[in-house]
Design a protein that fits this description.
It is found in: Nucleus. The protein has no helices and eight strands. It has 112 residues and is mainly beta. The radius of gyration is 18 Å and the shape is extended. 5% of the residues are buried.
């Protein structure tokens, strides 16, 4: 791709495919995460951890930039199911448009 993002809203008709999440026994799931605050100290080049515990409680731990105190940022919250929401995934390289059902919404807040 040359860096230019094609417009989804051009007058061209597109094929919309229903993704695997619409199958009777889906082999994949899609989730959203909503947080109240993202500190500038989070190291965007490192991986974090997501843990779902008892009662749908969720903990997200993200590493901070080297030398930061504390060394990690911890978010805690809960997971709730989506009933009718979907996400549209567009592959700008191929032009494919795929609709997937969202499984759950994870809402977390930074612990202090």
């Amino acid at each position: 791709m040359n860096g230019a993002v094609p417009s989804l809203y051009d007058p061209k008709a597109r094929v919309l495919k229903l993704g695997e999440s619409f199958e009777k026994q889906p082999r994949c799931a899609f989730h959203t995460v909503r947080y109240d605050f993202k500190p500038a100290s989070i190291d965007m080049s490192c991986e974090g951890d997501l843990e779902v515990g008892k009662g749908e409680q969720v903990t997200i731990t993200l590493p901070n930039i080297e030398g930061s105190t504390p060394p990690v940022t911890v978010f805690k919250g809960s997971k709730k199911p989506y009933l009718k929401e979907c996400i549209l995934i567009i592959n700008h390289d191929t032009g494919e448009c795929r609709l997937e059902k969202l499984s759950s919404n994870i809402t977390v807040k930074k612990t202090r």
